[in-house]
Amino acid sequence: MLQRSAGVALFLCGVLAGCGGGDRTPPGAPATASPSPPPIASSSGYLHVLQHSLVMTYHIDSTGRLQPPVAQDLGQDLYALAGEPQGRFVYAGRGGSPQANGQNVSDLTLVTYAPDPRDGTLAEMSTTTVLPRAQSGFVGWLWVRGGANRVHALRVRRWGTALRHGTITYLTAAVASDGRLGPVSEKEFATDSDYGYVLADSRSDVLYKGGDTYRRGGLEAHVIEPDGTLSRMGWTNLCLASAMSQYNPGIPLVAARGFLFANLQDYEHPPALCSYQGLRLKPLYALDLNATTADAFVPSSEDEPALLAMNVRIPTGRGPTRSELRLFAMNRDGDLRPLAREDLQSEIAQLQFHPTSRFLYAVDSASALRVYTVDSEGRLELTMNIDQAGGAMAITLKDVRAADR
Questions:
Q1: What is the mean pLDDT of each run of 10 residues along the chain (405 residues)?
Q2: What's the CA gap between 220 and 361, in Å, rounded?
Q3: Which of 19, 74, 124, 384 has minimal Cβ neighbours within 10 Å of its Cβ?
Q4: CATH assignment of 2-23+43-404, given 3.40.50.300, 2.60.120.650, 2.130.10.10, 3.30.70.20?
Q5: Residue ranges of the domains in the chain?
Q6: Which helix (H) or strand (E) covers residue 3, if one does?
Q7: Could you give the dihedral angle defined by the CA atoms of residues 283, 288, 290 and 292, in that order, rounded to the nearest 10 degrees?
Q8: Which stretches of 74-137 are assigned E, i.e. beta strand?
Q9: CA torsion sign, 306 to 365 to 385 to 395?
């Protein structure tokens, strides 16, 4: 029990730090929005990066490169940021910052923002409170994800001596065409025994998660119903023909066209990338890859392959692993074909494709923001590396019509 609780605590600390729960004062950063830059004729939209207490909005030019950002202060209590497939809105989780006595200082709310077409700065469209200010313990955001018509979020509550107990809750709300948020539905997972390994597929109303370690472990697939409730459709504890340990469930990484790729790491097997098909989670194959972060680009045409980008840890045989960025093409049968690979000095913590698939943005563990171009053959080229500029990312498109909002 103590070993499992320690694992949960370490996992949550790492995730919360990545969401902005650590030092929130960037050296030399402006405290308010700078003057809007003049409009640029050729535009591929905007990249919004949550860096400490500021949202840095970069104009993306036609080559994928980032122009100098506009800094916008949307409040000290903004802790998570995400875009959605159409590039219309940005979603955020606000509130939950703890005081020294362990009490929260603000309500937890979900927020929708829309970009100003002139400079990409964000204007609040809708907000809804998901949890009033807590009186004890700590409640905060793990992540927020945007879908076509729905926003997804993961929340953690910790309490007890040294905050040793924890409960993770999945939340979702429908989003209207104008960005208004509907009622929030919640699903609370098992206290102290559910690690919160959750993937909300932004292209379909499906949620994948690692199972409760007090029960069967493994992986689960849930349909997200129109009212936000979850209906479990499939479960498996297999990675190809190998059974997962109950106490180390699979970690869902990325989903595309009904195929799920999950990371298996336990004491009984070497790391593997496990592939599944459909809501019943039919095991397909396992690759000898230790993938930790991934993103997918899924074209509208079924005849075009999907693109999957992954951070892969490579054993060195001499202690710490090194990392590579890998790019794959996925065919309609779920098979992966390697396209490109690049050595990394620091492990990538976040990946995001541009909606055109021509650009890939990454944030590494050293907080560098990296920009890659992806050519028609699937080759990667690093075009920018901006130190100390990383954070949660969202992309919006400049040419989205106001009527579509």
A1: 35 38 36 38 85 93 95 89 94 74 70 94 94 73 92 91 90 95 95 92 92 87 96 94 85 97 83 96 96 95 95 86 96 97 95 96 96 95 96 88 38
A2: 29
A3: 124
A4: 2.130.10.10
A5: 2-23+43-404
A6: helix 2-16
A7: -40
A8: 78-83, 90-94, 108-115, 122-131
A9: positive
